[in-house]
Amino acid sequence: MQSDFSIRAGMVLEPDGPPLHDAVIRVSHGRITEIVSAAGAGRAQIDAPECLAAPGFIDIHVHGGGGAWLMDGAVRSLEVVSRHLAQHGVTAYLVTTVTSPWDQHANAVAAARRYALSHQNGRDGAAVLGCHLEGPFINPLRKGAQPEAFIRPPSIAELESALGSDIEFVRIVTLAPEMVGAGDLIAYLGARGIVSSIGHTDATAEQVFAAVELGARHVTHCYNAMRGLSSRDPGVVGAAMAHPALSAELIWDNIHVHPTACMALVRAKGSSGIMLISDGIPGSGMADGYRFSLGGLKAEVREGAARLPDGTLAGSLLTLDVAWRNAGILDLQARTAMTSANAARAIGMAERKGALAPGRDADIVLLNQDGNVEVTIVAGRVVYAAPGFAATMLDDT
Predict the structure, then answer these.
(1) Which residue among the candidates 47, 279, 321, 363 is catalytic per the annotation?
(2) Which residue among 55, 76, 77, 328 sits deepest, i.e. has the most Cβ atoms within 10 Å of its Cβ?
(3) Is 124 tagged catalytic?
């Protein structure tokens, strides 16, 4: 890929204001240098006048995909998942663990960090930005598909002992704030710039609000594996809707969460308070009947969903391009916030990622009129182009 090139798109989504029509994005050495009208701009190396150019999707909660499992700590798995995500418009992601023995958490985080620092990161697929620990500090009552045998009470000492200096690569920790020791852990994480996310929890609204006072700012896959909303017990869901300091992950696959419930959350939080996630697992992108292990639990792809033998949903087969389409009732700016900008802001990377603007990383997805991914670009490198892509791609792009 040449270091300087340009992309012409029928519409370009900028962070503020209405979309630009028939515009050119100029890229130099992996960064966006300017966005101008196509009129008089000359011929672009990537000419996609029928496509929408949006900020590359950022998936802050994904465990695997394409048959690969990110907990195994293998470079091959990171490569497979990175390519799988890029096919669906994702340009950056957090390697997400599940509740497991500490050595497996440590191995996964160390491998992700090594990969992120290597020349391979973002070369042929989405780039790793850090890690999201989903467990082990959760409530067994709301474990979902997390293995109960490895659930641990919140402990700063255990976390430090297990991860050592690799804790610097952790961006989010999902925990249950009602568990003994959670308050100290939330304060500790906040002091280190790590997001405490409320999830797999039976917390009351009052316990959630207390966690926010200590620094919690996030809710893991809202509605799922948590105390729900009722008239006299608003639970985690009601607290998430009511508290402006909390942002909420949402699996908009119309399986984990009913589309009406998705819209209720959007109406309550606004698009600025929600991040669409995949919660993807190894079965994502695989055919019905595919069997795999999820933290030692046996799971299978059945009729478009991943389930344990007892029928419990085991992560998601969703990809963010499908989530983008499922959220089609919302305007383009709202969907852009929910798939890119909000995630970048949550993990402290909004100055570089999550928007198409001069100075930002050239992380770009081109979507056709049906919302399907035609091209994914990571730091100015084309990492995916759909077979038969109709746009003219010149030179060595």
Answers:
(1) 279
(2) 55
(3) no
